[in-house]
Structures are given as C-alpha cells and as structure tokens.
Specification:
This protein has 257 residues and is α/β, with parallel strands linked by helices. The protein is 32% helix and 16% strand.
C-alpha cells in the first residue's frame, strides 16, 4: 500500500523463462494474437457465406370450379419458374360447396396434384402472391372471399404487410367483370397492407390484339369461360405466363433493392 491508500505495482519481478532459442521472455508479456471479438466476427462471416440464400417464394393461390382459372395458374407458374432465385407454388383454397351441389353444377373433380393450402397462416411463408378466382356478379367467388375472411390473425399481426400481390380472373362474358373482379379485390390487400401489382401494358402488342376474343386487362390476366365449355386461348395463356414472370421479377427486385 502507498501512503495514499491506493494500490501500487509490486517491484518484485517474476522470474524470466527461457525459450527454446535461449531468448528471455518476461512473464508479463502475452504473445500477439487476433482479438477474440475479431476472431468471432470472422468466423460468423465465414459461416454466413457458407449458407446459400434460400429461393424467394411466390404463392399462386386460386379457386377454380371448371378449370379455367387453374389453366391460367399453371401457365403463371411456368413463367415464374424462369426467374432465377424464385420458386412458384400452386395452391387451391378450400371448397365451400358440397359434392352434391358440385355434381349438379357439373363441376369436374379437382386435380389432386395441386394441394389445398393447409392454413391461412401458411401465407406468411411467401414473399409474394398471385390470387386467382372466377367472378360472381363482378366480384370474387365466395370460396375465395371465405378464404380471405379466414386470414384475420394475419391481418391482426400484419404478417403480410409490404408483400406484393396480383390478381387473375375468369368471367363468363366480355362485360362480366374482367376489370371489376380485380379492382374490387384490392380491398383485401389494402387491409393487409399488401402492395397491389398490376401488369399494366407490359405484355406489349398482345394487349392490343383485336383479331380474337381475349380476356385479361391491365389489372391482370383473364379468361372468358362462356358457358364453361370454352377453353383459354393461347393468347390468354401467354398473358398468364407473362404475369407469372413479371411478378416473380417484382418479388426478386423488392427482396434485393
């Protein structure tokens, strides 16, 4: 102890030790080394670099009674799958009609190769969406509306906020709701805080073709089903494929600004 009561270094030296080369080292000195924090930092960086980034997920979620919307959905997946780093997944929403009613409506059986989405909570795993549905008096079919109505927990937690989404539709006639079915659905996205992504006129000359009947608008791809027997034209399918590719590109751009 010094006079002021503070600690003072001891004057006693620890004995020197001799290295293999005969040089003396002071026991107080430590060999130079990389600081522990820096070493940990390097290890973390190397570890992160070793883990490849996951593919972005585009969920194509739809309801289709007679297969027209499903046809568009399949072509959309083809378009989306051409964008590197993005993987598209097809899902159906649950059916709300009984088998007896569907039989009376002459609806064909559903293709089991496309799974039904397990739970609304599954949407949180996606980075972007394309929602497809037929029209019912100018707005989405009840089956799709019932599915959106079941997303209350996602809405409460705003789990889908900021994620991009688009629409594609099917109508019975040319004036049956190709545009209104899409824009009345925007309210679903607004309440979730999602970003509506229309295709505009990015399809180019195909949007201006007048030599054949064609569904689809700047809001998204579309098909005219007529009485249910008309199949989608190649132009309608090409527009759907373009929308899938376009949306996958948007998803990628938003994820990697």
């Amino acid at each position: 102890m010094g006079k002021g009561g503070g600690c003072v270094p001891s004057k006693k030296k620890f004995p020197n030790r001799t290295t293999s080369a005969g040089a003396a080292e002071d026991d107080h000195e430590l060999p130079e080394s990389t600081p522990v924090a820096a070493a940990t930092e390097i290890t973390a960086d190397e570890s992160a670099a070793a883990i490849p980034p996951r593919n972005l997920r585009l969920f194509i979620v739809f309801y289709s009674m007679y297969g027209h919307v499903e046809g568009l959905a399949r072509r959309m997946k083809q378009g989306a799958d051409t964008v590197a780093g993005v993987e598209a997944h097809l899902y159906r929403v649950p059916e709300t009609l009984s088998d007896d009613v569907l039989a009376k409506m002459q609806a064909p059986p559903k293709d089991d190769s496309i799974p039904e989405i397990g739970s609304p909570a599954d949407l949180a795993a996606a980075d972007g969406f394309l929602f497809g549905f037929p029209t019912r008096y100018g707005s989405m079919a009840a089956q799709m509306k019932a599915f959106f109505d079941s997303t209350a927990q996602l809405w409460k937690e705003q789990k889908l906020a900021g994620k991009p989404a688009g629409f594609f539709v099917s109508t019975g006639t040319q004036g049956g709701g190709q545009e209104t079915t899409a824009w009345t659905a925007i309210t679903q996205l607004a309440h979730h805080g999602m970003l509506f992504v229309p295709i505009g006129y990015t399809f180019g000359a195909g949007m201006f073709r007048m030599d054949s009947i064609r569904g689809g608008t700047p809001y998204g791809a579309g098909v005219f089903a007529g009485d249910g027997t008309r199949e989608p034209s190649e132009t309608e399918l090409a527009l759907a494929e373009h929308q899938g590719n376009y949306m996958a590109g948007i998803v990628k751009r938003l994820a990697n600004p």
